[in-house]
Structure formats: C-alpha cells, structure tokens
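User: For my dataset I need records formatted as: sequence, then structure tokens, nothing else. Please produce one.
Assistant:
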Amino acid sequence: MRRGVPLVLFILGIALIGIGTLPQFDDVTKSKNISSVICLSCLGITSTASDDLTIDDLTRVQYTPFRQRVTIYMFSTETCTSCPRVMELCREIAKFSDYVTASEVKYDDDVEGFRELASLYKAKAESVGVPWMVVVNESGSYVSWLYESYMDGYPKGGDVRYIIQVIDKVIALGTAEKTAT
C-alpha cells in the first residue's frame, strides 16, 4: 500500500501538469505551473513553504471586472528589512491586471515627495513606521494602513493571509463605481 502512494501522486501530478498546459488554463502557467509544485511537494522533492501568491489570488485579480485604475503605494526606507519583500508582492499583484500599478515611495530617495504623498493620503509612515500601504483608485478613494497592523506582526513561513487583504482592497477600489471629482 505504501509503495503505491508515490506512484499515484506522480500520476496525479502529471495529469495536473497536462491540465495546466491547456489554453483555457493559461493562468495556471502564469502562476509558475502550480500543479508541478503540488506534485513534487507531495513526493517530498520540493518544499511548499513559500510566500508566492497562489493561483486563487492571481485569478481573483485577473478576472475581476475593474471599472477604475488602482495604484498601490508602498512607503519604505532603505533600512526596512521587510519592505523589499512587500514591494515584490505588490508588483506581483500588478502583473495580473492592466488596471493595477504598484509604486514604491522611498523616504531616502525623495524626502519631500515622500512627506507630500504621505500627507495627501494621511499615511503616518514617517512617524509610525514602514512599510505603510496606500491603495487608491482614479476617483480618489483610498485606504491607508500600516502593513503589519492587521496581523499582529509580519507573517511567518508560508502564511499568505496578509497579501489577500491587499488584494481585497485593490479589488474593492478597482470595482467601485466611478465618482465625479
């Protein structure tokens, strides 16, 4: 019985890879062919502990009917150790919709610009900390928050719940009805 489990998982993995290469499943290919990762991790060849976005997250962004363009601003500093990883995830979100852009606002590159943009969106990035996130749509509606504030600190290991909240805010602002400015 134990000998048959790896063989069954291997066959299942091959089948999932085949499904991922069909034209209607192009999003699977775009998400680093998640079926092969599942197969190899089941066999113990690769690890599943990563902070990569999952197919469900990417599909939610890609197939959501956006009405407005959305920008994700991520306020950062050179000394922030979490900022590069957070910015990378924001860029990943932006890759899967033409309506979404991600922009890093570095304190060290332009102090005055950092302060002006932070003031415009009521971001307390300079006094409270970074990474500070602002998601804004073309009508001017926005959400501003300290990145770690909603999870009692930064996630550990393969916990991707934190990026889902960013995606939810992007979708909420992108699908909102346009308002006259």
